Amino acid sequence: MRVHLVTMPWHPLDLPSLQLGLLNRIVREARPGDEVTEFHGSLRWAEFLLERSGGRLRPADCVEVGSDAIFHGLGDWVFSGALYDDPGWGLARLRDYASGRGVPVETAVAMRPYAAPFVDACATEVLAAEPDVVGFTTTFMQNVPSLALARELKRRRPGLTIVLGGSNCDGPMGHALHRNHPFVDHVVRGEAEHAFPALLHHLDARTGPADVPGLCWWDGPVSRANPETRRTVPPADIPSPDYDQWQAALDASPVQEHIHPKLVVEGARGCWWGEKHHCTFCGLNGSAMAFRAKPGERLWAEIDRLVRRHRILDVVTVDNIIDMAYFRDFLPRVAASGWDLRLHYEVKSNLTPAQLRLLGDSGTVHIQPGIESLGSRVLDLMDKGVTGARNVRTLRECENHALTCSWNLLYGFPGESADDYTPVIDQLPALVHLQPPSGAHRIQLERFSPHFTDPGLGFGKRRPAQMYQHVYDLPEDELGDLVYLFDTEDAGIAGPVEQRLTDAVAAWRAGHAHSRLLFEEAGAELLVHERRHGRPPGTHRFAGWRAAALRGLEDGRTVPALHRLLTADGHGMAVQELTDWVRQAFALGLLFRDGATYVSLPTWGEPVRLPEGGR
Amino acid sequence: MSGLPGAVPHRLTGRRVETAAPLDIGGTGRGTAEAVCFLRECQGRGLRVTWRATGTPGYDPGILHHLPPPAELPASLALLEAWRADHAHGILYHRRGPDFVTVLDRRERGTAVRLTLDHPRLVAAFLRLLEPTPVAALDPAEREALGLLTAERLVLATGGWAVTLPPRLRQWPVPCTAI
Q: What is the model's pTM?
C-alpha cells in the first residue's frame, strides 16, 4: 500500500512534525512492504503565501495567525471558506468577535483568498503520489485545513481512504469530527502506535475494523466509534522519529531562510503529577494521563542520532513534564557531550538549585516550570503541589543559572478571593528583577480538565467557546463534542482586584529590563546592590548573623526555623531581634513573604538580558 | 585567574572587565589579533568590557561590530558611532556539535545567516584560529580554509595574523530565544 502522511497548517514552521516522524517509522516497521511518503503542508502553505502574495505574507505572519491566535481560531477560520466553498464564510461573525475583544484579524483576512487555491494545489500534489491511504495528523488549529484538503481529495478520488488522527481526535472530539464529515473514512482516537497499523491491515485485507480500539468508521451511513482502550502505549513501542522527508522538504524551501529550525523529541507521555493530583484547569494530557518515559539513555541516543543527522543543536521536547529520573540518566549525558545544545523542557516548579544548575549545564536553558501563581492558597485550589514561596525561589534560581523561564500568571479559580491576591499583588514590585509572566490570564475551561469533567467544581454552565462560531458550520450540540475550549461564567476574582493584578503584571513586564537586585560577597560583608525599578539605587550591607539570615532565607523559612538554623550555626540573637530584622528586610523588599515563610530575593547571577525577539 | 586571554592586561570585577591599556585595532599584526580574541572571549562569557581603541582599521571595520564597541576610538568618530549603532549582543556567535560548528551571523542588519561548517578541515581551521595565529604558520590546506573563512567574514586576517571572529557562547542570554 501507499500511505501518504500529511501535516497541514498551522504546524510550526521551525519544527518537524513529531507525529509524521513517528507514524512514518511505525508504518515502516509494522508493514515493511508499504511505501510511506509525507506532505509537509504547513511549510508548503508558507511558501505558497510568500510566492502568491509577492512576499507580502511572510512566515512571521503564519506565526501570528497560526500560533499566537490559538484562542481566537484565526488559523482555522482562514480555511473555513475553503471547507464550506464560500470565500466570505464567517467573515462577519469573525469581525464581530474581533471588534468586541480587540483581536487583530487583518493578516488572517488577507490570507483567506489564498486558502482555496492552496487546497486545490495540495490535492493535486498529494494525488500525484498516487496514495491508497492519506493520513492527516491534527493538533490545535489543523482541523479545518485538514478537513478542507480531505474533502477535496475525496471529491477528486472517491476511492481514496482518508484517515484523521492526533490530539484533536481524542475522545468525543474524534467521533464528532467523523460523524460530521462523511468524507473522512476513519478517525484514529488516542495513541496510534498500535491502532494505525491495525487499521492499515484491515484496509489491505478489506476486513471490518470493529476490533481496532478507539477507531471511528462508517457502517453504511452510520458513524461507529469503537470503545477506546484504557491501555497506553509502553515507551518501548514508541519509536524514534524519522525526519528525513521533512529535512528534504525544508532544504528545498525558500522558507528556510526565514526560520531557525529545531529538532523535536519525545521522552515521555502523560504526567506523573497529574496521575495523583490532576491540576484542576489542565486538559493537556487528554484521556491518557499515565506517565511513561523512555530510559534517559535511549532519549540521549535519539538526540545524538538526530543532531548528527540534521546538524541542528536546538531541541524541543514535547513532554508535558520532565521525568525526574532524567536528572540522573539523561541530563548528565547531555552535559557531558560538550555540545552547545539548547533544549526546551517543561518541568515541575519544585526543583532544587542543583537540579536547576544541571539544566543550565546541559543546555536546557529554556524551561516552563508551570508556576501559574505566586499565592499558596490559589496554588492549593488548583492542586498544583507547590507553594508561592517555592515558585519565587524557582524564579530567583532561573536568574542565578541564566535559565529562560516561560510562565503565565493564571487566575479565575473557583473559591479564590481578593484576599488571596492582595498580599501577592502588594509584593510584585519587589519581584521586578525576576522574569515576569507572559501576562495575567483568566483560566479557560479545557476539555479533559477536572474543571470540565466535574461541573461541581464551579464551572457548571459551559458552552463551546465563542470563537468556534466563525470556524465551524455545525450545531452547538455537535460543537459541544468536537471542540477543546469552552466559555463559562467567570469564577474567582473580578473587578478592582483583577484590574490591580493585570496592572501590576504589566508594570512588572515594563520595569524588568533594567531591574537588578544582586548579592556580592565582600570580605566578611554581604552586599546587596539595589537596582530595581521604582526604588532608589544603593547598596545594603549585612554582616554577622544578619548576613547569615539573608543567606538562610534563600531556601525559604519561617522566623522560628531561621532562628533555629542561626542558633545551630553559633549565632546568638533573640527571637524578637530576628523578627524585627526580618520585618525591616521585608520592608526593603529584600524578602518575599508567603504566609509565615520568607524567601530572600537577591540573586547571585546576572544573565545577559535582551529584549524579546532580538533586533 | 579570569580565564580570559592573558595577552591583554585587564581587571575583572564581577561581570565587568576593564583593559589596562588601549587595544590596537589597526590590523598591522599580532596586537590586533590578540585584542579581537580578548574581546571575543569577553563577549562569549557575557562580560561587560570597557576598553579604548587605538589605530585606524586597515580592513572593513564592520566585521568587528559584534564585539562591544570601545569607549574611545580617536581615529574616527564616525567609525565609533557606526559601531555603537550596529552592535548588539549575540549578533555573531558559534556553537559546537559533535563534528560540526554552526554560526549565526546577524551583523548585516535585517539578515540572519545560518552557516554550518562540517568539512573537517574547515572546522579544524576555524577552531585553531580561535588562538591568534601567524598566517605564515598555516599549511596549504589551512590556508585554503582560511580563504573560505575570510570570505564568509568569520576570520579576521590582517597584518599577517588571523583570528576567528564568532565567540562560542558560554552562557545564553535571557530570553535565550532572543538570539
A: 0.96
